[in-house]
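Suppose a colleague, Dr. K., hands you the sequence of a protein chain of 229 amino acids and asks what its three-dimensional shape might be. Before reaching for any lab equipment, you can write down a predicted structure in token form. Begin with the sequence itself:
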Amino acid sequence: MNPRGLWWAGVAMALMPGLGYMVWQHTDLTLPAWAGLPIVVGPVPVADPLMAAAALCELASLGLLITAAAVRRRARTPAIPEAEGDALTDAPSTPTARRPADRRPAIALVGAVAVSVLAVLVMLPTAAFALLAQSLDTPALVGGAGPSGCRVLVVDHTFLLLGSGDVYAVPPGPVAVARPAGGYGADDGYSPVAMGTVSVIWEGDGASVNVWSDDGNRPAAWSGTVSCG
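The predicted structure, expressed as tokens, is then:
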């Protein structure tokens, strides 16, 4: 493996989420409507696909940078020749050949180091923020699938004593974009998904969904019909 190629691939992946965000903010580029919605891949719901993609980019970048450093270190480690049997030779040792000096221009070397440092400085907070955003959302498919394969997704958003949530309809398919159906608020960081206070009753192609709290001090209430039609 080429350590230089691995290193620059890691640098590119580290900068990709930040550059994409800058392009989106400073141009007329508009994201499609589904970009801000949860997706469901098979049985796995993803509450925020963009943040999940950013986190995966940064983690992949870290893996590439570590691999590049390990490959480069292994390449620089001199091989130790094996002795032939038990015979010892008194042949004079030959001086180790010096590596040729790096003739790249100093400005290119400084630029490469600066870009690499920038990538690491961008990677760490971006990965931390993306992982934090993922930890604040609790998505769950509830109630099983309906006759047509439609499913119900509930996403809890909790932060300290703040809480809220959204209810979605998930069309059938291996990869599906959720469709908003309603939302609710909660007190004291109450999570209906974690507490199991969500019920789904299918009636044909529609589901009657009820969200409630375990007591009156932490209200979280929503009820309605969810359908993929």
